[in-house]
Amino acid sequence: MPLTHDPDATVAALDPLGADAVMRALPHANLAADVTWLHQRAALLARRSAEVLSAAPAQAALRDLGMLTASLARHTGHSAPAPCVEAALLRLGALTGEVPRETVYSYATRNPRGLRRRSFTDTPGEHLFIDEVTAASHTLEAAIDLLVHLPKADNETAATALADQVAQHLRAFSTHLLRVKRNLTPEFFTGQLRPYYPPLEIAGRTYYAPGGAQMPLLVVDVLLLAQASTGPLARWYAQYVAGNVLYLPPHHRALIEDAGSRPGLARLARHAAHLRPAALRLLGELRRFRLPHRELARTNMAVRPDGSLGSGGYTTHALDRLLDVTESARALLTAGSPV
Question: Strand 200-202 vs strand 205-207: parallel, antiparallel, or unpaired?
Fold first, then answer.
């Protein structure tokens, strides 16, 4: 199944709700906390969405209506949208086969560039954040394209060559997110951006805002780590994947469903020596990303009240557990491992 970001670029070019002017005005309305304007425009876009009949336009419509709805939740404190907006979100979600709100794909890879860019604050920091998350997502797509073929490599030379290419993409992914760390202070992210990533209550269910757990990294994780841990850690990881996979687009969900039903690369490499150097290389790259990512999350959480959750609904404890899963995969490839 070929993966490409081109479909998302197609979505980025679409404006099925005629919302360009509304979305250009959104940062000003947010700055003014103009709840009346937000209510009126959300209702307007909800009415226009009745004309949307196919998946790609529906993805673009969810991007725009979702950002308005999130803005309303930020300023009103109410997580449930108005009934007309809720009905529109549910219908659009059904057309896309995705959750009925904006996702990290909506905010990044499906977000237009230039004058049509959708943002909550129109600040340089937010634009940098969108650009880096978009670029990071594209590098992950490229990594996935290669990684799906690695278990089928029939010798160490072929496996190592593929792993080298995947590792380059994973390192580029880390570089993009580290650029966010260097340029966005915890005070800016927590004070200016995080309030626009609230959970929404739609049809009696909580849907979390765009977050790192919903990026294509989840696909890379499962391809590498499926069946790598046991006991409570394995149960936690299964719940983590199940809780986030619904926020991915259908082609990524299909990959995870397929990959999750059989051993990941680390488990395969335990019994296939020619895959072992490749698996260790990629697990090292994953660990190299996770350590500074955990540090970044802890720094951001340090300026928030105790018990705060990230936009995806997790505390930093989830990052500790993900490191544990990664280490359990590395342990599989260590001589004498009983796992």
Answer: antiparallel
The pTM for the full model equals: 0.90
> Percentage of residues in the chain with pLDDT exceeding 90?
80
Which residue ranges make up each domain of the chain? 6-102, 124-332
Q: Chain-centre distance of CA 16, in angstroms?
A: 24
Give the pLDDT means over successive 10-residue stretches in the chain (339 positions). 66 98 98 98 98 98 98 97 98 98 97 97 97 96 96 96 97 91 90 95 96 92 94 94 96 92 94 96 90 69 65 70 91 68
What is the CATH topology of the domain spanning 6-102? Methane Monooxygenase Hydroxylase; Chain G, domain 1 (1.20.58)
* DSSP string across 112-171: PPGGG---SS--HHHHHHHHHHHHHHHHHHHHHHHHTTGGG--SHHHHHHHHHHHHHHHH
Per the listing, tokens 């260590």 go with 334
Coil, strand or helix: which one is 205?
A: strand
Under DSSP, the state recorded for 262 is S
CA distance 327 to 230: 12
- CATH number, domain 124-332, options 1.10.3290.10, 1.10.287.110, 1.10.238.10, 1.20.58.480: 1.20.58.480
Q: For 4-31, what is each residue's pLDDT tens digit?
A: 447 999 999 999 999 999 999 999 999 9
